């Protein structure tokens, strides 16, 4: 098999620094029907789908790294594979931000994690807002095919689908026991072997197109300058992990400053931070650095190619505010993330 670096360049669809939603036709270099498998697991179904539909654009979405590598190995065995792309991202981010409205002919979701414990139900993929995002992404007349062998999750899915009017059942019933001619997945085969009922939900969008999604362009790297005489050795004394949560423009934003790392040979720190903008999670770092003229510079590190979001700006704002509150001698001189006075 070719080196992993080559496979990533060939198959991965870059999105971190791109304008959202993505330009789908530009990514494939052609206009064709698009099928998206959300959570492709070991990649067997995605590879079979690619082999079965060489004239379609095939997009696989998976966040976990091991399944991505398994899938790449399977794709490399195909004679035709240039029509397959992979997005290593959260499925919720993909359907809510990355895919244009009215762009997908078919979504495939095979055996999503049922999260069977009551306290974990909020982690389930199938929620009302997720189905609404699926509907927006689908072309008029497009469909979603969802398979599960978990009876309680099937009841949950039926309830969620029944409570919305964006999609309607393609077969007249909420789910069917089988779909003749459909590719058989590993989980489907395993359930059949032990006598567990598979549930197939096939729901379609109506003929009315959805309004376009708003465009989200990458912002400039945010920064803050503080001024004042402070002892560099004590700048982060007493630092503790701190979390902050707020709702901005309907988006739930969670910020968690985790750890501080000090450079061994200069007055420079990395503040490890987790930022969540709705379904978009980022693990990033802020640089805090002493400079001449009693200045303290705070800025986003380029480590990991973070995307500047509202949550990232708020995280830098909260970090600057924490330093100002801790050190009374400091004062704000410049900020691209809002007034700190």
Describe the structure in your own words:
This protein is of the alpha/beta class. It has two domains: 4-205, 3-Layer(aba) Sandwich (Rossmann fold), CATH 3.40.50; 223-335. Helices cover 26% and strands 29% of the residues. It contains nine helices and 14 strands. Strands 3-2-1-4-5-7-6 form a seven-stranded mixed sheet, sandwiched between helices. The chain is elongated, with a radius of gyration of 23 Å.
Mind sketching the topology for me?
Blueprint: H1 4-11, H2 24-28, E1 34-38, H3 44-52, E2 57-61, H4 65-75, E3 84-87, H5 91-98, E4 104-110, H6 128-137, E5 138-148, H7 151-162, E6 167-169, H8 186-193, E7 199-205, E8 223-227, E9 242-248, E10 251-262, E11 268-277, E12 280-291, E13 295-300, H9 310-326, E14 331-335
Parallel strand pairs: 1-2, 1-4, 2-3, 4-5
Antiparallel strand pairs: 5-7, 6-7, 8-13, 8-14, 9-10, 10-11, 11-12, 12-13
Short overview:
The chain is α/β, with parallel strands linked by helices and 341 residues long.
Low-confidence stretches: none
Gross morphology is elongated
What is the string of helix and strand elements? HHEHEHEHEHEHEHEEEEEEEHE
Strand neighbour order, sheet with most strands: 3-2-1-4-5-7-6
- Category from helices, strands and their pairing: alpha/beta
* Largest β sheet strand count, sense and barrel closure: 7 strands, mixed
Q: Which range best describes the helical content: under 10%, 10-25%, 25-40%, 40-55%, 55-70% or over 70%?
A: 25-40%
- The CATH superfamily of the largest domain is known as Vaccinia Virus protein VP39
The portion of residues forming beta strands comes to 25-35%
Distance between the termini: 57 Å
State the helix count.
9
Look at the structure and give the mean pLDDT: 94
Radius of gyration: 23 Å
Q: How many structural domains does the protein architecture include?
A: 2
